From TrEMBL:
Gene3D superfamilies xref list: P-loop containing nucleotide triphosphate hydrolases
Protein name: CobW/HypB/UreG nucleotide-binding domain-containing protein
Domain CobW/HypB/UreG nucleotide-binding: 83-249
A GO term from the CC aspect: cytoplasm
Pfam family, one: cobW
Transmembrane segments: none
The organism of origin for this protein: Alexandrium monilatum
The organism's taxonomic lineage, starting at the top: Eukaryota, Sar, Alveolata, Dinophyceae, Gonyaulacales
InterPro entries: CobW/HypB/UreG_nucleotide-bd (IPR003495), P-loop_NTPase (IPR027417), Zinc-reg_GTPase_activator (IPR051316)
Length: 249
């Protein structure tokens, strides 16, 4: 434990990593919510320099102000969890056109792209490759096994893990260089329900430790949207268009 009055390294609101024995490499992400924390059952004068609220909601304290116990986030998590944007919309609405524009734009950011294809020919994937060829910062992972929904969610988890591990390896190989990854973009198929995709980021410990849902963007075809929204469906079938719009930010 520490002694009150000693100057501490961090202030309330600072994002930190704590040695908890859980999470990646035994470190968990959190935010400092109180300085010089104590509990009633502790002996008089006993204080912990920090109380921290972990990203999973747990409250803990750091017994020492030491890098072995609490430290600044490093590597991919230096600026917090990786933001993930889900790009959805019905078939032909223009999702890939928007995504291809993002990949071509000179914004200086590095994105990983997870694209989902249903058909045998990955036409959208070819468009992405055309754009990707002009910039080397982005990486593309193609999931060619159906909709990104609960039945294939494990494949999404694997794709995210592969992307994170590749980015971590790149940062180790280039210490002190540019951040290896700024975010992840997921383009769903036109018939995908975004709900199960978003749940993935709360259900897998590795994914929830590194990533957070930053937003859901739904692209709508203004000419055909009403028709897509109101077309007849079999009993119990999901109205994908309605779900996609409902999940949009």
């Amino acid at each position: 434990m520490a002694t009150a009055g000693v100057e501490l390294r961090f202030t309330v609101g600072t994002k930190v990593q704590c040695k908890t024995g859980h999470g990646e490499d035994g470190w968990s992400n959190g935010t400092i919510i109180k300085l010089w924390y104590r509990e009633e059952r502790w002996p008089a004068g006993r204080l912990a320099p920090y109380q921290i609220k972990l990203d999973d909601g747990r409250l803990i304290f750091a017994p020492l102000d030491d890098d072995r116990v609490i430290r600044e986030p490093t590597g991919l998590l230096k600026d917090g969890k990786l933001p993930v944007t889900v790009l959805t919309g019905f078939l032909g609405a223009g999702k890939t056109t928007l995504l291809n524009y993002i990949l071509k734009a000179n914004h200086g950011r590095r994105y990983a792209v997870i694209e989902n294809e249903v058909g045998q020919v990955g036409i959208d994937n070819q468009l992405l490759k055309d754009g990707y060829g002009q910039k080397t910062e982005e990486s593309i992972t193609l999931l060619d096994n159906g909709c990104l929904c609960c039945t294939v969610r494990d494949d999404l988890v694997k794709a995210i893990k592969d992307i994170v591990e590749a980015a971590k390896a790149k940062e180790k190989a280039e210490p002190g260089g540019k951040k290896a990854l700024d975010g992840i973009l997921i383009e769903t198929t036109g018939i995908a329900d975004p709900g199960p995709i978003c749940k993935t980021f709360y259900g897998d410990p590795f994914v929830s430790n590194y990533c957070k849902i930053d937003g859901v963007i739904t692209v709508v075809d203004s000419v055909h949207f009403i028709e897509q929204l109101t077309r007849e469906r079999s009993a119990g079938a999901v109205n994908e268009s309605a779900q996609q719009v409902a999940f949009a930010d």
